[in-house]
Amino acid sequence: MKLLFNETLDYLQLKLYELFHGTYSQLSLSLLTSKLTEKRDFSPVKPESLPLASLSVCAAIVSLLKPTIPGGYMYSLVAPSIVGYFQNIWKTASVIPILKPGKDPTLPDSFRPISLLPVLSKITKKIIQKRLCQHLNDNDILIPQQHGFRAGLSTSHQLLRVVEYIKTGFRDRKSTGAVFLDIQKAFDRVWHVGLLYKLIKINTPPHLIKLISSFLTNRSFAVKVNNIHSTNRKINAGTPQGSSISPILFNIYVNDIPRTSQSTICVFADDTAILAQSNELQLVTHFLHKHIAKLEDWFSTWKIALNVAKTEAVFFSHHIKKEPPKLYLHNTHVPWSKSTKYLGVILDKRLTFKQHIIQIRRKFNISVAKVFPLIARKSCLSLRNKMLIYKLVLRPILQYASPIWGRSLF
Predict the structure, then answer these.
(1) How far is 53 from 36, CA to CA, in rounded Å?
(2) Boundaries of each Reverse transcriptase domain copy (predicted)?
C-alpha cells in the first residue's frame, strides 16, 4: 500500500511540473480525468505497472486541484508525455508468446506475441488517439476506400462494397477480376521515417508529430517465458502491437495507396483487394496489371513487402467459362482460384456462398458441442446465463456478415 501511495504521489508530482512547464495546449483537464477513470480498456498490462485502481485516486486529486489552476494553464495538465516526450520505461514491452491452436510448438511462427505495457502508457496513447482521430475527421483526410478501424464502418460495409461491385457486373453481363493482396507483417514493418513524413504531409499539428515520434523511437521488448525474461531487443520499425494508436497510424501510412479510374480498390487496414470489370477478358487483366504496376512501385518506395505466395485472384463471372489471361505480381504468376476468404467470408466465383455457409454450419455445430453441457435442459445454469452463452458464443457465428451471404439461404 505504501508503494502504491508513493507511486501515486510521484505521478501527481509529474503532473504539477507539466502543469506549469508543459507546452501542449491542445489537451484539456477534463480529457485527462476522463481517461484516468475510463474502465473500457481490458487490454493486458504489465503486472508490475501502476494498478488501475490508483488511477481513480489520481483523477480525484487532479479534479480537486482544478479550482487552483490558473486559466492560462488549464489545458496544460495532461498525460506524462505531454511535453513531447514519451518515457522510455513506457516503451519497453514484456512479450508473452501464446501458441496458436493446432500449430507446431517447435516453430517460432506458431506463436502469437502478446505485449504487456505499463497501464499509464495506455492512458497517454488514448489521449493521442483521440486528438489524432479528431484531426483526421475534421479535415476529412482518410480515403473513403479505407474502412478499417473507422467509426461507423466495419468489415460488413467493406464486404458489401466488394459484393455489390461484383453483382453489378453480373447484371451488366461483365466479368470481374479481383486480386486479394497479402501484406507481410504490415504493422510490424511500418517505416518510421516514412510515417513521420506522411504525418507532416497531412498537416498534423507539430506537437502531435513530436509526441508520436517519441512514442515510436527507442522501443524495446523482452520475451517472458516461465517468469524468466530474455535480454532487451530494440524495435527499429513497425507500430506497437496491441496499441490503440497503431491502426490509426497504419491507416495514415497507407492513405496514399495508388488508385486508378479503371479499377476499384477496397482497403480494410492491411487487407487490400483490387477489382476491375469489363466485357472482355483481356481488358480485365489489363486493368488489373495497370493497377498492380503502380502498387508495386508504391510498395517498394514505402518498404512494404507482399507475400505473393499467399496473394489470391478470383475471376467472378456467370457466363464465361474459359480461363482468363494469366495474372502476374512481381513477375510471379498468380493463378486464378475458384474462391478465396476475404475479411472472414468465403467468396466463390459465382457468389453462391455455398462454401461459406457449409463452413459456418460446421463451426456452429462444433461450438454447440462444446457448450452443450452448459446450455442443455439438465444444466444447473439459469435460463439467463444460458441465453448469455448463446449470445456471446453461438449467435456471433451465425450473425457475422449475414447481410452479405444471408440471402443465399432462400
Answers:
(1) 10
(2) 79-347
Is 348 exposed, middle or buried, given 0-12, 13-18 or 19+ CB atoms closer than 10 A? middle
DSSP state of 322: S
- Residues 177-198 have pLDDT tens digits of 999 998 888 888 889 989 999 9
- Name residues whose C-beta falls within 8 Å of residue 368's C-beta, 6 or more positions apart in sequence: 394
The single residue listed with the C-alpha cell 482497403 is 267
| Residue-wise pLDDT tens digits, 97-125 | 888 888 888 888 788 888 777 776 777 77
Three-class secondary structure of residue 344 per DSSP: coil
Dig out the grid coordinates for 46 from the structure.
504489465
Q: Which three cell numbers stand for residue 388?
A: 448469455
Instruction: Please report how the helices 29-37 and 52-65 are oriented relative to each other, as an axis angle in degrees rounded to 10.
Output: 150
How many Cβ atoms from other residues are within 10 Å of residue 175's Cβ? 23
Query: CB–CB of 112/100 below 8 Å?
Result: yes
Q: How big, in percent rounded to 5, are the helix, strand and coil portions of the chain?
A: 50, 20, 35
Contacts of 343 (CB under 8 A, 6+ apart): 155, 158, 159, 268, 271, 401
